[in-house]
## 1
Amino acid sequence: MGRFLARRTGESLFTIWGVVTTVFFITRVLGDPATLFVPVGATDAQIAALNHSFGLDLPLWRQYLHYLAHVVRGDFGRSFVFGRPAIDVVMERLPATALLAATAMALGCVLGCTSGAIAAMRKGSLGELVIMTVALLGQATPVFWLGLMLILWFAVDLHWLPAGGYGRPANLVLPAVTLAVFVAAAIARLTRSSILDILREDHVRTARAKGLYPATVFFWHIARNALVPVTTMVGLLGGELLGGSVVTETVFGWPGMGRLTVQAIESLDFPVIQAAVFVAATLVVLINLAVDLLYQALDPRIRAQ
Amino acid sequence: MVEPVLDIRNLTVVFDTPAGTLHAVNDLSYTLMPGETLGIVGESGSGKSVHVLTMLGLLPCPPARIVSGEVLFRGRDLLALSERELCDIRGAEIGMVFQDPMSSLNPVLTIGRQLREVIQRHAGLDHAQASARAVELLGLVGIPDPAARLAQYPHQLSGGMRQRVMIAIGLACDPTLLIADEATTALDVTVQAQVIDLIRDLKNRLGTTIIWITHDMGVVAELADTIQVMYAGRIMERGPIAPVFHQPRSAYSWSLLRSLPSMARHRRLYQIPGSPPNMIHPPPGDPFAPRNPFATPRCHRDVPPLRQVADSVPGHQVAAWYDLPAAVAAHPEIADA
């Protein structure tokens, strides 16, 4: 266990270094930020001064080493736009993204697992057909379109919920539902196929031959085993959501990391882009680590390897 | 008079498949007395597994469909019980041991959990009492250091140990009837011998009535009191071990016995010609007739009933129109082939 954790931690650090390095070099080819910040008709000297203040006049390799040395200390520099430490700007947006991701994830998991399980246990029924059709539509529907449609129905026509904003529980409903539909659709399809695989296995017959109650058979001998692949999917989707759902956050004006990242890219705010990508990558790595540990808890055969 | 533990009457089970109706079990009737060990042999598709899974309600219906019959277990018709009532019997009064203990045990639950859950379900014991009983059971089936095994997972045990765990689960609630379906098939020969010894020992100690389903005649000879040879969902021959093995009356059991390797006779093993019948379109008469070198015209026409062979051998029954000893004597070239 200790060795496993040490190895996985090493791998995680390597992954984060890779991401941090890649984003550094990619941002450098995006363009010259100084040109966005100086007034039209500024002199070369003014631009050079600005570049100097941003540290962009140094050779690339020195910029990179300087950048790495600071990243290790959690310092991504000051945001060109906000004039404050970039990491602070990003971390301020994290709670909003985390709240949206967690709500959507919880809603999607409950909905996806339940409907997937019903579809599998009632295979061949009308219920299965309906659930699987809805799930397929849910996965195929573009998130921005679904978000706009929800705004149209529930905010514009029915006036039940606000079209956007942040702060009250009501603000959360539409963006969370938008994301949850996508999550639930993916999970429902995987849960169904996973349960159908488990149902074919001999140990389910053994459980029934023991005279266990149907609920015991379902939860301990079917769902428990079917959960293993679903956990992976939840981890992948969770990482995606925590990185900031750019489209949903933009449609609903949600002040999360996704929207911040897009704005930072538009304004070539290198420190914020780098900080945001770093935070997102770290979260994804942490979730993967958590999934690996959960996996081991769920399937003892993996522990043995 | 002693009541039979199991009394199957005219059981017929079919599968509705896209290709047509598959006749898996055809008008099957037999009884099993307390303490008796019945060995059921037959090749795949002979209905030997299907009929026990049917009576325990373990076959998915559809595609399986019970057309007719009664299965009286200690006087109650299992087929007429609700799923809820059957649940109370399964694992408690009827224990089951399946083939391939790797796939028949849940890989993600501990041995202890898989034993305790059946004990707690039926015996109403608490966790600690169930654990104690689980340790006792693992000891009974000859697993060393049973207390330590409770926390282990199936993949941490060897094949033979896993099969012992399966047997412990089958015996957990002191069942009246233990059904083992190919319980030694997935094991190598030495482990198989150990498991057979174990079952024989348990049978003597606990007096459990046993149905042992296998395609291995050798296992039946070692373990069973009565052998029942099945083919195409019917009983071809049934009787005490010695007469059936020494004077088989069905051409099918005769062929099976001749296809066993022998230490005494060094000759080519007999190969039954043809292949098992298509059970969607079964042959009209005796199902084995198309492969039977001794078949008479009547065999191809009418289904033979199961009848007593001779008054001198009680319980020896055969379903055949021909007289096998006479037919073998008349055709020595087939017998020596």
## 2
Amino acid sequence: MIRLEDLSHLQLDALKEVGNIGAGHAATALSQILLEKVDMTVPHVSIMPLSQVDQVMGGPEQVVSGIFMRVFGNAPGKIVFLFAEDEAVSLADSVIRSNLGAQTDCDFRESALKEIANIMTGAYLYALTRLTGFNLLPSVPALANDMAGAIINTALLDLGAVGDYALLIQTQFSLISRKINGHFFLVPDPDSLELILNALGVGTGWKK
Amino acid sequence: MAEFAVSRAPQKITTLGLGSCVGASIFDPLVKVGGMIHIMLPYSSMALKSENPAKFADTGLPLLVERLEQLGASRSRMFMKIVGGAEMFKIDGPDDRLRIGARNIEAVESICQEMSLPIVARSVGGNTGKSIVLNLEDGSVQIRMISGIIVI
């Protein structure tokens, strides 16, 4: 199995490109739901010690809405969306196109957020499928409003069984009309990483 | 995550954002020496490769006890409090990997029994994230959640 610490620049660039194309599709999907422009950042591919992963979004105690999905198929993995809690509410309301006021535990909103994640993930995975020839399908989304650390650590747990590092392909989305920044993470399962790199033509033969 | 620390009064030890992980605090009230470990997974045999024994209950807990003994704590006086092991995401269907919280709790409890470490308080399971602070003056553990604070 490929060690994350040993990935070459070329391999990291290839993964970044995967993130770019996938996130581009996902941003377009979001833009079509909201009927407004969605900006996205160039993806950031990072390899970090598991003990530091919870620093990625304003520290481990930052309260966020996290949506979690497993990816099934030829190259399984996980997808996690993180939004600051108030921005998640605002995003859900713009999809529902109404203001539900201060009902915080609103099933309708959670459902809207899950649906947004579902549609964006579908678009992302479609792009990845086209690039790699793999068959990839998302699970039903699960949602939690809680500390970022608790959410991210849970999403990464089974990586701990194979190594001490995590690979994150991270993209940030933002809307022009209101302040909503979403973070999107694709976390390939350890065995999937090598499969993806091979499918992209930068397999282990390309090491360094 | 997957780290541990030991110290003595008047210090405090903290770990932030526990989800499915288990935060185990061990304290010796006589010498006021204690430690905390943030356990990610139950057994090191689950691992293909890891250079970090603190990640697993079965390798981390004995390591923590050993370090506490080096600081003058006695095994016979030590007691333990455990927090965490939540199921953060409720997903329908059999995905065992997401029930890791419950498996972490089971592993910690059975290892403590083998090591004769009494567990005197616990706040485990559920589906909320927790941050904990172990106060080495009295061995109390403060638990912060987004819904409020409790002390065990």
## 3
Amino acid sequence: MFLINCPYCGERDQQEFKAGGEAHIERPKQPTELSDDEWAEYLFMRKNIKGVQFERWNHAHGCRKWFNMVRDTSNDQIKAIYKMGEKPPSQ
Amino acid sequence: MSQNLRVKSSEFIDETHRISFKFDGKTYYGFKGDTLASALIANNVHLVGRSFKYHRPRGIMTSGSEEPNAIVQINPNSNITEPNARATEIEIYEGLEASSQNCWPSVNFDIGGINNFLAPLLPAGFYYKTFMWPKSFWEKYEFFIRYSAGLGKSPTNRDPDIYDHRNIHCDVLVVGAGISGILAAKNAAKNNFKTLLLEEKNELGGSTIFETNEENKINNKLASEWLKKEISELKNIKNLEIKTRTSVAAYHQYNYLLARENLTDHLEKKDKKDKIRQRLLKIRAKKVILATGALERPLIFNNNDRPGIILSSAIKKYNNFYGVACGTKTIFFTNNDSAYESALALHNKGLNVKAIIDIRENSNSRIIKKINDAGIKIYWSHSIVDTTGYKRLSSVSIMKLSNDGTSVTGSKISISCDCLGIAGGWTPAVHLYTQSGNKLTFDEERKIFIPKTNTAEQISVGSCAGDFELDEIIKNLNYKLKIFLNINNSDFEDIAIENDHDTSKRNIWLLPSDKPIGKTKPFVDYQNDATAKDIKLALREGFRSIEHVKRYTTTGMGTDQGKLGNMHALGIIADTAGVKMGELGTTTFRPPYTPLTFGTIVGRNVGEFFDTFRRTPMNDWHVKNKAKFENVGQWKRAWYYPINGETMHQAVQRESKAARQSAGILDASTLGKIDIQGSDATEFLNRVYTNAWSKLAIGKCRYGLMLNEDGMVYDDGVTTRLGENHYIMTTTTGGAANVLGKLEDYLQTEWPELDVYLTSVTDHFATASLCGPNSKKILNKIIPELNLSDDNFPHMSFKEVLIDKIKCRVMRISFTGELSYEINTPASYGEAVWQKCIEAGKEFDITPYGTETMHLLRAEKGFIIVGQDTDGTMTPIDLQMDWIVSKKKYDFIGKRSLYRSDTMKENRKQLVGLLTEDPNIVLEEGAQIVSELNQKPVEMLGHVTSSYFSPNLNKSIALAVVKDGKNMKGKKLFIPMENKNISVTVSNTIFYDEENKRINV
């Protein structure tokens, strides 16, 4: 059970949060211009890394804000947390 | 039976307090402070259970939670009986009843014992190998296997006890109150850390507290005396909370630990009443100190499982702590010095220790001299090759061990005895350490796995970290604590420690016998009856991974999770396969460390508290009017209102007719409502719905369909424009929370530039939906000043009105196809307005209807229910709702996916209507649809999604999804059921009032 440092509320139990999959996958600005393959790449393809992964999390039972997390999926160490729109920390 | 095996009184046992209890139907006596195990041993009862597979007689082996054999059934004759309790952990109380498990008809005469003689036929993987053919017979085998297998009996009645959960936050959590844990907790608390100390037993002090070895001294006192003083001072320390009878079950990430606090199991029945039995502690600690100690290892030799064969350390505890002798003629069998301490403890209490058999060649410890002085015979370089005694050990046979330890030589000596203490060294209890995600390292010299890495906020101290000697424990503890707690001094830096120092040990995982291994029974896992030869067999058959060997042989898979024998299993695998143990690794340690009851896990969340319910403001009225309820998400919704003993079908038919013929009223308060405001609200709706919103005038309503980005229908509902920049969106009842979450996600992450604010107002409004040709008249009675003409208040529009000074929103929208108004009132006035509608509607026989009638009425009109007629694989095109998908809008959620090759395929499943050939047959929802009968294999074309008997059409109607259904209108299809085939014809989805005239009657 993680202890997650919400950038808006501070440390809270994992129960208050919802995981939202891989981060930094931007919705294409002009979907109609994309080929089926390009759209499928956006829609379906996720990395699912063993190791350091960039993720979206939502403080669903709290401030309801979305934010980003850098987590090592092999040992569940949270490396960094930063707000939406901010650049990921350099590794 | 008399207490003939009590030795000198013990300070830990209250001999003035006699307690009677029953075991296997027979009454015995013990004293306050006894465990069931110590009391049974005091009564000379050693045979307490039968083993799992061979039904061999088994006795008490340990004195703690690692016990593999003495697992018993509590309250065996009650329907709230509890299985698999460890006799070594049960504190006796007046009236305790327990019985042995795994035996029938009794532990003394067990029919399953025949398995022991069939043992050669029951090797590892026996069940896998034997009962797999012929395949079809498995069902027959399974019945008998399940009948004779299993541990104990499950209770048949619901658990009457109360359980609780508690959240705890602390600076320092110390797990285990042996000498290391106590000193660590004391240091932490004294340095102003809020400290919690947990101990699974009911007393503090671990094994040091009953230590009588005079070689081990602290400040010139016996270690036990010194520790008792330390413990007595604990209560004066601020910041320190101590919980005994509390076992840590799990250690999760970020120092989140779950512990079970046992509050009443040791109390008499009358004292248990109305008290919380167990509490699950959910602990979040800033720092964790593990002081979980070490478990003594058995030795693996032929027939090492007879009742009377007990861990050496347990014999010492029974002797020193409980004041109970495990036998009258005891022998010890050891590979290290610790058995000598036990032997001496027994000797000092006047008990007969016949011999010590040591597989080492010698030892230089001071304690050896004391043993010699006591006249106890030591057999160096000897090993036990066999034992005798079926229900109780009666003798051991020993032989000289070869230099390499792989065989025995010379002549066999037989020594009679009734108790054998075995000492195979110590295994650090690293279970919790590894659960937390840390890695172990193997100390090749000492043959132990010890902690390797530690996260910043956790340390292991004492014997669980591999420190077994007193001076080593204290020295390392001081050093580690100062760094870990960032303190300058430890309280225990200046104490003088003396201890005997010979840690020599000769490790042989599997001791040889004079017989070939195939003829021996060296048990590695006592509870599951896995022997060394099973492990060797698994290796011969090609298993290499320890995880596979474990599952194939079931080693370590009992309720004790192999706390005793796992290391030996690893050792035997390593030796046999010729690999290093460090490279082999261990099997995964998983929570819980000791079994938990379900009650503890669920706590108070049982019965009506299992989940939260949401009730509408009109709920009391529904109850008063005898509504039946159905669960929709967390909501309790009125389902139908039976009168005069109507069945559901009868009630629904009546309600449906009334709603179309005169007037009906539905509680629609549960629909999700989201208030949307902001200068970009219209643009936002354009992006999230498939249709266009730019031209919706203020005061008008529009139905919208929301897709997922994959093009599949996600939710639907009517949204009303309340003002220039203000909308109210309704969602499905079950989808409300997810829709809000999805909209917030897009706003925050994809379109942060939009000026839009979302507020969930589902609970703020109550909604009464008036429907039917007379609904206008009823509304007119309630709000006479409102002009209800079609010109002033047309279909799909909204008015803000006052009802008795209460500001209400009335939408003229319809989910039934009838003229219909939805009155939204502030929630607290919901029931009053509802009552008003009922009063006003009396002269029109207004009929309250529930969700079932609502579903029927909308099905007559072919309106979909998202989640019933769709399942996450339906696009709007599949639903034949092309009209709602804007071709002009550049983009909306899911638009691009509607042009993927797969979603554009012609023969996808599409929503159609179905009419049965016999209008009285109502199809089953979920029934499969085919076009051909008598064809194998038959192609499943789709399934029925909604089906009702329509009272207004006097025939059965259904909605279904059918492959290429769009092009099948008029085609005959079949629904094959268990005992008949139903013929149906594909139809339009709108069955009633196709021209939509009734919304304007």
## 4
Amino acid sequence: MMVSKLIALIVIILGVIAVAQLVRVYELTAKLRNRGEHEISTRDNNLNGKMMFGFMIALYIFIAWLMLRFGWTGRGEAASTIGKETDWLLNLNFIILFAAFILTNSLLFFFSYKYVKKEGVPAYFFPHNNKLEMIWTIVPALVLAVIIVLGLKKWNEATANAANESICIELFSKQFDWTARYSGQDNKLGRFDYKLTTDNNELGLLTTESIDSAIVAMENGPNGINKLENKLNDQRLMMIPEDREKMELDLSRKQRMIRLLYQMKERHDSKIDKHAWDDIIQKDTLYLCVNKEHEFNFRAKDVLHSAFFPHFRAQMNTVPGMVTRTKFTPDITTKAMRERMNNPKFNYVLMCNKICGGAHYKMKMIIVVLEEKDYKKWISSKKSFKENYFAATSAPAPSSAMSADSTMVTKDTASVAMN
Amino acid sequence: MAAVSHDSHGHNEAHGHHDHGHHEESFVSKYIFSEDHKMIGKQFLITATFMGIVAMLLSILFRIQLAWPGEGSDFVSFFLGETWAPGGVLKEDMYLGLVTIHGTIMVFFLLTGGLSGTFSNILIPLQLGARDMASGFLNMLSFWFFCLSSIIMFVSLFIETGPAMAGWTVYPPLSALPQAISGNGLGMTMWLFSMAIFIAGSLIGSLNYIVTVLNLRTKGMTMTRMPLTIWAFFVTAVLGVLSFPVLLSAALLLIMDRLAGTSFFLSDIIVGGEMLTNHGGSPILFQHLFWFLGHPEVYIVLLPALGLSSEIIATNSRKPIFGYKAMIGSILAIGFLSFIVWGHHMFITGMNPFLGSVFVFTTLLIAIPSAVKVFNYITTLWRGSLVLTPAMLFAIGLVSTFISGGVTGIILADSALDIAIHDTYFVVAHFHIVMGMSAVFGMFAGVYHWFPKMYGRMLNTRLGYIHFWITIIGAYGVFFPMHFVGLAGAPRRYYDYSVYNEFDTNSYEMIMDLNVIVTGFAIFAALGQLLFLFNFFYSIYRGPKAPQNPWNSTTLEWTAPVEHIHGNWPGELPTVHRWPYDYSKPGADQDFIPQNVPLAEGEEEH
């Protein structure tokens, strides 16, 4: 290690000295020829002019090679109706812009080669020409008008409200995974509040019972208000001042929270409970139904994330304290896509595309698009939030029971996907 | 050479000398706390060069991780040691730290402080025929704020918990919650304070540039006789004054959220098992404030580069810049439009879709003045008599990258298409080409062109040529393939792409192939910069002495003596009689007529 570093250091020093010596030699010869650094020799000038042209050719070959080898294939064809339109528009834009790119770059490099200084050929004094300037203001403006009109038309379609009968799914993001919530029988997502988040209600869904249990947890839980008060009032307990201060802060925060929870309880209308109870919570794999429009509602628990569906050409940020939405209609099942791509292991995916912490790059959820009958079969096999909630509360260790259940479900659903 | 300018010059020297200069200056007042714009410009250049080297090195470190994920590297371990790169493998958190600081330094410290700070300082008084900036003291202060902020940013790399790790855009809540990632404790605090100081310095500088341009032009130097460099610096300074305070307010609000428990950007958050009481703030608000600066910032970076290249291309084509008035018009149009386009960074944040359409429209409008500029450059080259100095090569390279990065910008500005490629490597490729490469090329062009003015010596031309060719080949080699990584759907700021193995192995292989190509070119380009650094520092001390007007240029800075004196011109200030682009004017003896030469009898101003 040390030796190799030493050698590297010596090589660098020798390199610098070598360059310095070369420069000295070059300077001496320049001095002999009585030519200053600012006077560019005809040879240098012509050589660089030719290299400009050569560079242009090399650049075009490089781009052509990249396109032939990597082109669009990296993502596969669009697997949603809106994605197909995006690709069409993207290709159209690429053609227009590629033409502009080649035209202007070619002129630029060709002129740098063609008009290199030649003895006896003066430059042409050409300060302005209104007609030319009008042309290259108006032509780009017209081309841009086309691009804008087509783009906005597509944008309005992509951002319009989803149809009422579309399948409504919530995607909940946190460092570093995704959880899906299907809207259940009534196709209506239940309401939520982050203050209701407890071990067996990770998404903070709003029901009469979940408010009660959040209050219980806040008051009597392992780090609840009562425990904290007891500790702080315990004369026998010795605490470092910093710890004490932290605990006091924690307590005052929880006291504020509990007031808000009681307010919520007062205002709560138990008639809306049913929207939440029939929701279906799903981890690890997101199942979608082919040729059905899906509306996605996004939530974030901690920081910004972004729900990026590269194969469906859809993306939306998830924002703490706010619900964002997008929609698309998948139109190729996973099975069909695997055949088309000739890759039996291919899967659709949902990735996080907004920097969210160290493991940002691992935050993903596999997506499986099913035929309608398979989708129906799968969804009817799922337990609702209500069933899981009461199963978990009666069990001795709520959180572990919940996760065991969900892994079981995943295994079971994976076999559905394979069919 | 320069025969035309000689009369006026001899005249100046005859009764100069008493008024200015030649009193002994101490080392401190000459080199450290200098109030001379030329020295301050050089201080900006050297500081920014240092920061630029740091940022480039950071990029090489994380490029090694991207091309060969998980493989130990002596190079990485040499710089990061066991804490941040155990066994020479970069840690996840530090990867984000490097990305964040690389972006911050490149955008703010190299391309804002370095580019506009250096050349506005050196060229504004010299090209306008002023003795110095309007306020030498404020100018000095602006450098020292910049220097202090650079030091804080640099030091933040070395603290125990690591530098800021929330990306250079520091979006809250990630940047507001120390629990979310290790660098967001002290590292983030230092980032915010560094930026606050940077902004203060930049504001002082910009105000000074504006006042100088408006008030200290020499006799005859009307606004429409100013070189395009000055127009660019002027509009840049205006953009800075109007937009940087907004970033400052965003930074201050973020500091409040972090240190004083306010909820400007926070709402309904549970992090690290802790339920926060913050309610009602909006992370989107921060993005609006950030990009209200962030987009004009792109032009704060670009316009000076375009100004420098206009001057260099005209001089070395031996032709007037084509469409001088149209060029000024485009600078003004770009400057104005840059304030009403920031939303295109936020199409998929959940912003109202109608608002999105407005931003699509305004953003695509910017393409028009940009296209005008490109065509004007190309027409300037047409039927010119090109002298391909290293500066000229870099200026032409700038036009090329401005085109290449500009066309992909049109795709990103189209909200419907942006959905599919937002935050992928396509974006990284786009802004590195259009903003990074163009501005860096402009900066190199400026250094090669004005080095004789700055140091009174010449850079080595051959080394300059080699440097240019390595840089343009390396830069295109790095950033062109990135488009294809992005089209494959690869998100930016990913530590590695192993996740692709779980759903599409073909994509994974393709991304890895491209990443190796990119990193190879990046290392090649970085090594090429060593040649420049050598040339730069060697020539400061040992380069051949520069003639007064090496490029046969028309602007006023070349009428000032090679030896720097306080006050720039001995004796009277030059008087301006014509526009700055009288190159190859029919009927003139020489192929250039400096601005201080009176119109000949019967000669018409262009």
